[in-house]
């Protein structure tokens, strides 16, 4: 029995101690009673350990194995999962071996794959009893077409994360607030690399088209002198703001924007001399730069002039 002191620091009487002890026991019993209730956020009271299963081997999940039930299944009420209704409805039309329709209330559980998963349903036909794996979303495959495939929703989540400028922690914090199953950091990184390469290739193609448009517009404009070339503006932004004494940000991006189109004609990132490298790339493509608009920092411009002595570009603040 605990010892309780009063407001003067003295030990309370036995009667007061019994009253406090009873209050503590009542609270413990109420807590256990609340834990048995199924709430909207079930992970607040109980949580089933779920192993990340995005990269599962083909031997553990093949079309020939009609009886294997994974040990890491969780109930349908475990959390929310992103589901494509048309994909789900088409798979529930009939069993894979017979023509009897399937029902979600017959599910043995769901295996989570990032934001979505696979529901395991055993056919109710006594002569069939086939295990059906119902995917909750569309999938695509990489170079090796084996396993369950890659769910589109996980790739799109990584694409949205890049577009919003957030990381894995912020994304999973948002998903946990919605009680949606989170994505493992390793899986999310793989999907991020998959989407990032496509976005980078698309950006390079867009820069080429914009550069050609900028060159065409610049040649059709009336020039006040005999010089020819494009006019561009440049600027660089860094993830870590400089303090005036040190500029040690490890990541940044620099862009060149055309005067006539107002669009990006080149971009660079994660390099110490990003602006100089972009100037050199345009010079290698035999694109003449007539005028460069930038900030008061002339270090990059002077370095580019030394590397390209035949260039006609001039700096304009």
Structure description:
- It is a single chain.
- The protein is 34% helix and 17% strand.
- The chain is α+β, with helices and mostly antiparallel strands and 317 residues long.
- The chain has two domains: 58-183, no CATH class; 207-239 and 251-316, 2-Layer Sandwich (Nucleotidyltransferase, domain 5), CATH 3.30.420.10.
- Strands 8-7-6-9-10 form a five-stranded mixed beta sheet.
- α3 packs across α5 (185-220) and α6 runs parallel beside α7.
- The radius of gyration is 31 Å and the shape is flat.
Please bin the fraction of helical residues: 25-40%
Structural class designation:
alpha+beta
* Run of helices and strands: HHEEEEEHHHEEEHEHE
Number of helices: 7
Overall, the morphology is: flat
Low-confidence stretches: 42-64
| Number of DSSP-assigned strands | 10
Roughly what is the average pLDDT, rounded to an integer? 76
Instruction: Report how far apart the termini are.
Output: 79 Å
Largest sheet: 5 strands, mixed
Provide the number of structural domains. 2
Radius of gyration: 31 Å
What percent of residues are in strands?
Answer: 15-25%
Sheet with the most strands: spatial strand order: 8-7-6-9-10
Structure characteristics:
2 domains; 5-stranded mixed β-sheet; Mutator-like transposase domain-containing protein; Nucleotidyltransferase, domain 5; Mutator_transp_dom; 7 helices; 317 residues; alpha+beta; 3-stranded antiparallel β-sheet; flat
């Amino acid at each position: 029995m605990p010892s309780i002191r009063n407001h003067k620091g003295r030990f309370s009487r036995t009667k007061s101690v019994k009253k406090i002890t009873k209050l503590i026991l009542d609270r413990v019993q109420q807590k256990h009673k609340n834990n048995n209730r199924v709430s909207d956020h079930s992970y607040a009271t109980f949580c089933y350990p779920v192993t990340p299963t995005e990269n599962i081997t083909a031997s553990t999940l093949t079309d020939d194995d009609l009886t294997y039930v994974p040990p890491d299944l969780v109930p349908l009420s475990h959390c929310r999962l992103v589901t494509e209704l048309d994909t789900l409805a088409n798979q529930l039309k009939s069993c894979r071996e017979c023509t009897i329709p399937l029902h979600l209330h017959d599910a043995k559980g769901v295996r989570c794959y990032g934001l979505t998963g696979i529901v395991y349903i055993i056919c109710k036909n006594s002569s069939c009893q086939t295990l059906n794996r119902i995917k909750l979303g569309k999938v695509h495959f990489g170079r090796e077409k084996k396993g369950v495939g890659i769910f589109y929703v996980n790739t799109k989540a990584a694409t949205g994360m890049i577009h919003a400028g957030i990381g894995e922690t912020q994304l999973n914090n948002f998903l946990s607030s919605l009680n949606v199953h989170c994505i493992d950091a390793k899986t999310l990184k793989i999907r991020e690399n998959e989407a990032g390469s496509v976005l980078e290739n698309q950006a390079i193609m867009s820069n080429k088209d914009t550069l050609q448009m900028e060159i065409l517009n610049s040649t059709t404009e009336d020039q006040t002198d005999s010089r020819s070339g494009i006019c561009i503006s440049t600027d660089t932004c860094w993830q870590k703001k400089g303090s005036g004494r040190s500029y040690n940000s490890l990541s940044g991006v620099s862009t060149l924007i055309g005067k006539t189109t107002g669009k990006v004609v080149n971009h660079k990132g994660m390099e110490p001399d990003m602006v100089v490298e972009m100037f050199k790339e345009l010079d290698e493509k035999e694109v003449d730069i007539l005028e460069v608009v930038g900030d008061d920092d002339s270090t990059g411009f002077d370095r580019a002039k030394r590397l390209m002595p035949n260039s006609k570009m001039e700096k304009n603040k």
